[in-house]
Amino acid sequence: MQHKHLFLTINKYLKLLEVGTKFPSEVHLEIRARLKSQRDPHLILSFYNEVALKGIVTGHDAQSGIRFKLGEAIRKISARKVEAAYRLLKTQGPIHPICHQKILDKLACNRELEKGALDCYNNIIADGYVPDLWTYNRLLDCLCDANNIEMAWKILDDMVAKGIRPNVVTFNTLIKGFVARGDMNKVWHVFRIMNQHNIVPSVITYSLIMNNQLMRQARQQSGRYSIRNVTDSDIPLDARAIGCLFEGLGQVNDTRGMWLLYKKVCKRQIKCSRGVYNIVIKFTLKSGWCTAAFEVYEQMLAANVLPSLRSYNLLIKGFVHQANLLKAMHVFNDMLARGFPGDLITCNALIEGHLKQGNMTEVFSVLEMMREWKLKPDVRTLYAIIRYYVSSHELEKARELFDKMVKPEYCYPRPDITVYNVLIDGYLNVAGNFDEANRLFRQSIDEKLQPMLYTYNTLIRAHVKHRQLDRAVELFYDMQNNHRLHPDAFSFYNLIIGYLREDRGREAMEMKKMMEERKINNRIGILSNLLEYHKQHHLRDKIINVEL
């Protein structure tokens, strides 16, 4: 038989509970089940507060059970509504510390409710109850988000005085607040306190500092201030923390700071990860420090850290860019000896290096190696070779390779506008073949490739040079009307010179006026002098020999 109180309303149940009415457990469970469908925060808080005050829930985990169920009940209710219900509940009588603590957790989620969270905390302390570490951390997070760091610091002192030992999350929260404020002295003070409490900084600790924009500015202005403080202090550093420091220095391109840190890490015999070695290699090569990069590579091998394909690619590309093909080949041969087949990045770097030395035999050797590794050349591979052929005035070989590129089975992806540009430039300036250059230009349009300003400037310059001014003017307006490209100073310069050569000073002046209206900086200072001289003397023969 069902109990008669099973059909009580929740409000009636609470009133009976307040006057000491005893209910069997099935009634409590029924009322709690009905609360799940409620969205009234005051009703929910009242229910769990009465349950806690009357000690209805028994057992070893009674208090944690009430806290968990209350948290679930108000999880989807906004913090502002919970705060309003909390104010009303305070006027109706005492609030159990467990409920107080859960309300504080909820209010601390919203930094705009900072005052409500502090009020709740003070009420908990006034009741003689000490919040747990989780609640303290949530309150500190709320205060730091609200930029009330001073109060957060007082709460930390109160927390320690009450015997609650802070953890790394506690200090990370404070560091986040001080970093956001830009107070790096306080950050290092927190580091020292962490060390006193024997708390090792985590990756998050260092990430909060190294990845913050204010910290980047501070480091740039103060000459690696953070590195001196971290590496020269007695703050314990592990491999993960070192990795964060190197990543932070990499983000601001501070190669000198990175090298200083690397030397100190080696001195303290801290083992670096492969990622750290890769970062140091990348930035030392970027700064042209080939000897230092090779030294890091040898130390990496000596530390029994096996390089990855990325490590080898960084070294090979870096040495090629620094015109040190000998070391690039040394690293490449070492890579093959360790059983690493190269990828497209490796092959492109080697091809670029051999082309710089004009060694086509080695280029074809790399291409053959790519076929063995079943690697298909990409646009960058063949662009480099075509550019070499064009610069060597071997247009037939360049065109033969280009015709292969347009076949999907030979190259992926298809040739882009940069490949067309280098061929167009070759036909115009090497062979003087306007028809083929224009045909390639139209082909790029048919392939739905967006022309570059460089493409148009190359064509305009060549047409002006060979006295085809009308075609040059047509291209000048075509790039604006059909491709939304804005001419630059060189576009105007080429046309003005063309007009002056044809003794059309008025059109040249109109072009200069258009240039000024568009606020294009006249970086070529001779324009004004040429126009003025032409206007005064009409000496066409003095202008036709101007070098384009």
TrEMBL record:
It holds the Pfam family PPR_2. The keyword Nucleus does not apply. Residues 261-391 form the PROP1-like PPR domain. The keyword Repeat applies. PROSITE patterns: PPR. PPR repeats lie at residues 132-166, 167-201, 308-342, 343-377, 416-451, 452-482. Keywords: Repeat. It comes from the Eukaryota. Regulates mitochondrial small subunit maturation by controlling 15S rRNA 5'-end processing. Localizes to the 5' precursor of the 15S rRNA in a position that is subsequently occupied by mS47 in the mature yeast mtSSU. Uses structure and sequence-specific RNA recognition, binding to a single-stranded region of the precursor and specifically recognizing bases -6 to -1. The exchange of Ccm1 for mS47 is coupled to the irreversible removal of precursor rRNA that is accompanied by conformational changes of the mitoribosomal proteins uS5m and mS26. Belongs to the CCM1 family. NCBIfam families: PPR. Binds to mitochondrial small subunit 15S rRNA. This is 2060_t:CDS:1. It comes from Paraglomus brasilianum. The lineage of its organism: Eukaryota, Fungi, Fungi incertae sedis, Mucoromycota, Glomeromycotina.
